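Notebook p. 47: complex prediction with glutamine.
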Amino acid sequence: RSAVEITQEALQRIATLEPKLHSFLSVTADTALAQAQAVDAKIAAGEEIGLLAGIPIGIKDNMCTKGIRTTCASKILENFVPPYESTVTQKLADAGTVMVGKTNLDEFAMGSSTENSAFQVTANPWDLERVPGGSSGGSAAAVAAQECVVALGSDTGGSIRQPASFCGVVGMKPTYGLVSRYGLVAFASSLDQIGPFGRTVEDAAILLGAIAGYDPKDSTSLKVEVPDYTQLLKPDIKNLRIGIIKETFGEGLDPAVEQAVTKAIEQLKDLGAEVQEISCPRFRYGLPTYYIIAPSEASANLARYDGVKYGFRTPDAENLLSMYNRTRAAGFGTEVKRRIMVGTYTLSAGYYDAYYLKAQKVRTLIKQDFENAFANVDVLVCPTVPTTAFKAGEKTDDPLSMYLTDLMTITVNLAGLPGMSIPCGFDDKGLPIGLQLIGDVLREDLLFQVAYAYE
Ligand code: GLN
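Predicted complex, structure tokens below:
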């Protein structure tokens, strides 16, 4: 089939499913078809095309796309059309992918269910009454429902891996600095990373290969060679040392998740891996540490939405100060305001040492736990999320219980490590369960290898 035919099929599927799923904030049919035509023209001219050429992809709506609305699922950016392109989407366009649309998310990527979107709630394709996870819930749902083949998400504390787990797809957060953040709307800059979603490990590996690499436009970008991850997909993990993070088992872990993850680990053993238990004693401090550092950075990053430079501006203001106040009061949703308030508090004089500085110190200790672990093993495993997908509305009034779903993913961001979620079974309601693989800095190759062997 031609790229245009494949694109038309994807757009048709989107048209059929969107009334129930709501995974896209905008569908970019015209530009998609133009991109597909360009690929077909290349093929007709006998030019060589890459693996991703003509492949329909969804992009989380917090990555800037030139001339195409980028909302972050926020009223404050409802009509924001970026004048520039993010590095990742530019790289994908160069690779010939066909962007079919921008996917839904929790406002500014703050949340774990995609219910914090100012515009719509995305459904989980496995059970429409349940959430797809978040904050990249639109991307995860779109890939699971085959509205597109692959998608990009961003992960600050689990926002790729948690929805991948809830939707039964593969999702990876790369090492901090491997993928350029240029054009990604900042949430918590020291934690944010862009990464791939796919239905298979190979798809995710191909997509990561296309977006990774040094970018002078991102000051935290790593100057490293990007390996060809597909060459490293071997179904062989003999003698690879795998560590089970002890602290992730026990209280609060859904028995169905425990069972599926334990079974998956048994399979890794059968495949020849050496499996041992590993302790990360400071693992449990990840959650409180994250919920100080992330809001602190967010409060600073979101100061730019003041109604002056771009985005929404309140129509009724008497003076500059009331313009700021009313713009932000009307433009931001509840969760975003909560984060800005927490972050402003933890950074303020008199509290800074007690909260922000303390959190930074604990962050170092959490990193050390991982360093110690990787002195003895190659890859760590644990559940991605303690539960399967919950019902929409179930946790919206209880932010703390919502935050708890990030328990097992956020330490990975605090340490800047690569983490991946792969499907490893279902609970008795037929809801997908995810196995999380965690690697040492820039050891994405090992994660792909283990995931591929398991799959
Ligand atoms: N759920 C976490 C939060 O609300 C993580 C979000 C993310 O990774 N973007 O902050």
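Notes: The chain has 14 helices and eleven strands. Residues 3-232 form a domain with the Amidase signature (AS) enzymes fold (CATH 3.90.1300.10).
Next step: compare against the earlier run before touching the bench.
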